Each structure stands twice: as C-alpha cells, then as structure tokens.
Amino acid sequence: MSKTSDETFTHVRGELAWTIAMSRTPADAISMTEHLHAADEGRFELLGLVNDCEVALYWDYFWNHVVAAGFDVEGVDDLARDAPEEIRYAGREDYFAEVDPEDWDWIHPRHQWRVE
C-alpha cells in the first residue's frame, strides 16, 4: 500500500497547529490548521506562514507564483485572486533564493531544505 501525502506528513498538522497556537488560541489553531491543510492540494501548495502567523504563503502551480492569503477560523482567503506583482517569481527555486528563514514563522517541512 502506498503512502499518501497525509500519511507522509502526519507531523505537519501538529507542528503547524503548535506554531499557530503561539500567536492565537489553541482551539482556533486547530481549526485554522485544518483549513490551511485543506487548501494545500491541487493547484496550491502551502509554503509557510509569515507576519506572526497572520498570512499563509502558497505556491500557485497555474500561474507559477506565490500567493499570500489571510486565514482564520472561518477559512483561508481566496487563493485564486491575483497576487500583487511584488510577490511573483519565476519559480519556487527563485522565490526561496530570496527567502530569509528568520522572517518566517513556519516553513513547511517539504521546503525547509530549500532555505537551509
């Protein structure tokens, strides 16, 4: 039986919830984690959190750029809207070349190697 990404990254939800709970309430953090995880599929890939866990960054495979989205207990803001020009990059490698890990609250484990 092959592992799905949910099985492969089971620790991610706990790590993400813990990080969010440091800025928000633990109960809200669980709900927000589920919304962030649900949006992390298909066209959008969760990269990490910034701005004191107020903004989630996703890679948009359709437009090949980073999308910044607010999130709360109700869900993640519309990821399909146009991203501001200043956060568009030619590729994930180019984007992560510009990243300072100290500016992020949390980086998804599948991308941490890119900024080390």
UniProtKB/TrEMBL annotation:
Domain of life: Archaea
Entry protein name: Uncharacterized protein
